[in-house]
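Recap from last week: sequence in, structure out.
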Amino acid sequence: MTRDVGEFAVVETLPDALIVLLAALTHLADPWFLFGLLAAFYWFGDDRLSASPRRSGATAIAFVTCAYAAVALGKAVFGFPRPPGADPAAVTAADIPNWLPSLLAVWFEGQLTSDGFGFPSGHATGAVVAYGSLALLADRLWSRRRRIALATFIAVVVAISRVAIEVHYLADVAAGGVLGIAVIGSGLWLAGASDRFRASWVGRIEPPWTVQTPPEPLPIFLLAAGVSLLAAGVAAGGGHSGEVVEASIGIGTGLGGALGWALVSGKEPTVPLGIAVPALLVTGGVWAATFGLDAGPILAVLATGVAVATVLALPSLATWVGE
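Predicted structure tokens:
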């Protein structure tokens, strides 16, 4: 089954400088970047950003955890390959602009390749969910429509970038966008916020999360763990060991998020920078390393579970240290 609709013929007409720029912008939805961005929102957000910054930040993390779980399940179910151009063997010196400095040339070559299944696009799904949830949850920043417009722009740019560097078909990123919207809708319902958001949109009430009570991230974390467990089972049944590990990361992230959230009240102050920076380096390093290394499923669950539990519990731990 081919998903090619002629998108790469259009990509070939684009100037090299634009492709390089898009290759850089694709990092806006890399898992490591979103990990740091969402951790920062959760730790440092205050009442200038959200009526309930700790709950809003945790809910955004839960949304993205659920997004990656849904992607893992989709890839395990469909098993559709990436475009031929994503194979490292397909990349030649002619694909690298000769005006790039050697260090950037190595980086750019790495951007042109990717492994694993391609449908749906994890970057497209992650961009829609991460920036869409931030647009909804950072309810005191700018206007709602301005936030949503910016989130939409970033998500579209990321989706285009994945096609431009030829690691995804157009169908992959389109499916990722639809999946991301579905995840946000499901997450709003689970967080008990859908009615409040609808009331806010229709009645022009600002901000949406203060109509009744703030969102509750716990059921979203648990759903993410359950979907990831299902994805791991499907991947194992298909003999896809790499996808089993990715699904295991989702299990650990979901369970770790639920555990960490149980250790906070949701009303803690911001985390001091002196505690947050080393915590981010350690937890982010563990989480990213689990993605990059060939860890087994059990180690993946444990490592990511501890890392994410620490991220969620840090506001409470920092308060305890301060006292």
